[in-house]
Every structure is written in structure tokens, then in C-alpha cells.
């Protein structure tokens, strides 16, 4: 999940270690390789587009992220990709992409109703008439935030090889579909605490928001193996198209 806290260079250096390449990346890579022009919203360190280029993609690849520290790392990895600093409110594209993708639960960072509407209208404007919008958000029924406790400490190597310990703590009570939490990063050399709010919309809410922006669901899955989206599914994985 690309979090706004990763605009800190010390944290940006940890991102790929905390979130290693996985089944969700492979799922999205298949769509990227099948599209001539791709916009990756919240691209972070750019690993999806870098992998696509390394595996032979020769079309237009554009990564968009509001965190300069993340884009610095992306540019080091693949200068041939177009890396853009900003978000869907600050950039305008007119039917230029065959695919818009959000990976790593980026959709959750769009918390406010107006913020979501603006972003989805921008996605709709960026897509060509036969384009696709691929993204995922955790199924709120899985209540993953209940596992975010100080006892669940993770360790990841820092750039100097030392171990950084990190954990999350959720503010209580949880308010509706919005979860606010702190994330602590502790290394032998430095210490950071970030505070974030994420949204956990259900499948009906996602469909409603898409419809309001002129998009419709054409595929929906509950896991990266393309299983059905049910009440117990861990994910709400959506492929949408312009109406």
C-alpha cells in the first residue's frame, strides 16, 4: 500500500522491502503487458512499470505519484518511463491511455467523497473508449485492521543493513469505513511515527462511485487467483470500463 508517509526519503527506501513483489503485482502486470499505453496511479518506487519495461513492453508507460522521494527511486530504476510528480487532481489527460492501474491498495488513500469523485472522473477522462481501469481495495468484511497491533512487529533491512522495526496501532473506535492508525518505524539510527487514515469501502460502494464517474464494472474478483468476490474474500479486485 503506497502511503503518503513514504514521502520521507528514509521510509521510501524501505518500501519495496516492506511490500515485496507478490501475486497482486503479477495480476496487474498481465494487464499492463496487454496495453499499449499505461498510467500507474500511485506508482511508488515504480516497480510495476520497471518490470513491464524489463519484460519487453515498448509502449507508453507513465507513473504518477505525489511523493518525490518515491519517484527519485523510480527514476533511478528506469529512466525511459515517464515519471510524473502529482496526483489525479493536479494532472489532466484526455483519453490517452488504454489502461489505468492502481496497485498496493492505493484506492484506499482516497478517503473523502469529493476526493474520490474527482479522482475517478480523472481516471475516466484519461481512458480511451476501450480502456480499462484495474485496482483493488481490501474487503472490509475481512477486518484486516484488527491485526494491526503493537505485538505484530515486522523487520526490514535499512540501506546500511541494520534492521528497522515497524508496527501499526489503530485508533479506537473505528468510524464507519474509515480507519485511522499510526505506523511506527524504529531503527538504531532514527525514529518515525506517521499517522494515516484509510477507507474500506464495500463492493456496492465501489460500484456506486464508479458509476458516478461514468465507469462500469466488467470483472470483479475476491482474490488474485480470480476467485469470486464474496463476503469472506480478502480483496475486492475490480476491472472497470468507460460506459
Explain what the structure shows.
- Helix 3 packs across helix 4.
- The two termini are 28 Å apart.
- Strand 7 and strand 8 form a beta hairpin.
- This protein has 243 residues and is α/β, with parallel strands linked by helices.
- It contains 7 helices and 11 strands.
- Strands 3-2-1-4-5-11-10 form a 7-stranded mixed β-sheet, sandwiched between helices.
- Helices cover 25% and strands 32% of the residues.
Brief overview:
The protein is built from seven helices and eleven strands. The protein has 243 residues and is α/β, with parallel strands linked by helices. Helix 3 crosses helix 4 (47-54).
Percent helix range? 25-40%
The tally of helices reads 7
What is the first-to-last residue Cα distance?
28 Å
Order of helices and strands: HHHEHEHEEHEEEEEHEE
The assigned structural class equals alpha/beta
Apparent shape: globular
Mean pLDDT metric: 94
Largest sheet: 7 strands, mixed
Number of strands: 11
Low-pLDDT windows of residues: none
Over the alpha carbons, how many angstroms does the gyration radius reach? 17 Å
Q: Strand arrangement, largest sheet?
A: 3-2-1-4-5-11-10
Strand content: 25-35%
Amino acid at each position: 500500500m503506497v502511503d503518503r508517509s513514504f514521502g520521507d526519503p528514509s521510509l521510501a527506501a524501505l518500501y519495496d522491502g516492506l511490500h515485496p513483489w507478490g501475486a497482486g503485482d503479477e495480476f496487474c502486470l498481465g494487464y499492463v503487458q496487454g496495453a499499449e499505453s499505461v498510467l500507474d496511479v500511485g506508482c511508488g518506487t515504480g516497480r510495476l512499470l520497471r518490470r513491464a519495461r524489463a519484460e519487453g513492453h515498448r509502449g507508453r508507460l507513465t507513473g504518477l505519484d505525489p511523493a518525490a522521494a518515491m519517484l527519485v527511486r523510480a527514476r533511478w530504476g528506469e529512466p525511459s518511463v515517464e515519471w510524473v510528480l502529482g496526483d489525479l487532481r493536479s494532472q489532466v489527460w484526455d483519453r490517452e491511455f488504454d489502461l489505468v492501474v492502481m496497485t498496493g491498495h492505493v484506492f484506499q488513500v482516497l478517503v473523502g467523497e469529493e476526493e474520490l469523485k474527482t479522482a475517478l472522473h480523472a481516471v475516466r477522462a484519461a481512458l480511451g473508449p476501450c480502456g480499462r481501469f484495474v485496482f483493488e481495495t481490501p474487503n472490509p468484511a475481512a477486518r484486516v485492521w484488527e491485526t494491526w497491533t503493537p505485538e505484530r512487529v515486522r523487520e526490514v533491512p535499512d540501506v546500511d543493513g541494520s534492521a528497522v522495526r515497524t508496527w501499526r496501532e489503530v485508533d479506537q473506535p473505528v468510524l464507519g469505513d474509515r480507519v485511522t492508525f499510526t505506523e511506527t518505524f524504529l531503527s538504531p539510527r532514527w525514529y518515525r511515527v506517521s499517522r494515516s487514515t484509510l477507507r474500506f469501502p464495500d463492493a456496492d460502494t465501489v460500484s456506486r462511485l464508479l458509476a458516478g464517474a461514468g465507469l462500469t464494472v466488467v470483472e470483479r474478483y475476491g482474490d488474485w487467483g480470480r476467485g469470486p468476490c464474496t463476503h469472506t474474500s480478502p480483496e475486492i479486485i475490480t476491472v472497470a470500463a468507460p460506459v
